[in-house]
Amino acid sequence: MSHAFEDLVGEAASAPVDGWDFSWLRGRAAEQRPSWGYQRSMGARMERASVALDIETGGGEVLAGIGSPAPLTVATESWPPSLARAARLLHPRGIAVVAHGAHDPLPFADDVFDLVVSRHPVSVAWGEVARVLRPSGTYFSQQVGPASVFELVEYFLGPQPRRVREARHPDHARRGAEAAGLRVTDLRSEALRTEFHDIGAVVYFLRKVVWMVPGFTVERYLPQLRALHDHIRAHGPFTATTTRFLIEARAPASP
Fold it and tell me: How do residues 47-66 score in pLDDT, each as one tens digit?
């Protein structure tokens, strides 16, 4: 291994990956952003809400970055390192942070929130979302779409079956929302360009987004990492397509 390869991989392998802050990748990777500006749009909805819930807040970075949260805002998170980071960021803003397992029922009563938001949830329990929304309440979410960054995934894992590539299709989200009694008022998707400028960026990304290549470690994939390092040095950034979709759904009004 060349010294440069060892340095890049070693630095990325030792970098902290708690929370949902990707600033470590600045200058080393670039991701095109969706045109709808989720954080800005979510912030505008927060200003009109009175009681709001952010599901899977991560380290609280997105919620902490808006101008004015709803007067009563609660965030949930399951991963302990992110939970602690979210508490540090959000408690000073008067936002409660609640530990909540991603597959557990939401720990709230029925008809509590007039706004529920979630950026990049691992999965959506549509029945639970519908349960905690007040009549005419809104669910607003940006989600990872189908086969996102699969050029990188398939580089390490090989070709993936169709059911895996289409697992996060926005049509599935529409059906889930409607089955829970919500009316989808907005659904749009975009395919965006992502670039990894060095092998350290690849290692950091796969350590942080652990479901992309399950069980990823540098040792396990060392030959592939070395080959990809050589490819980037010879041909420039490794490019992939990121997919995102935006969904907004509304609970029915009271009878």
Answer: 999 999 999 999 999 999 99
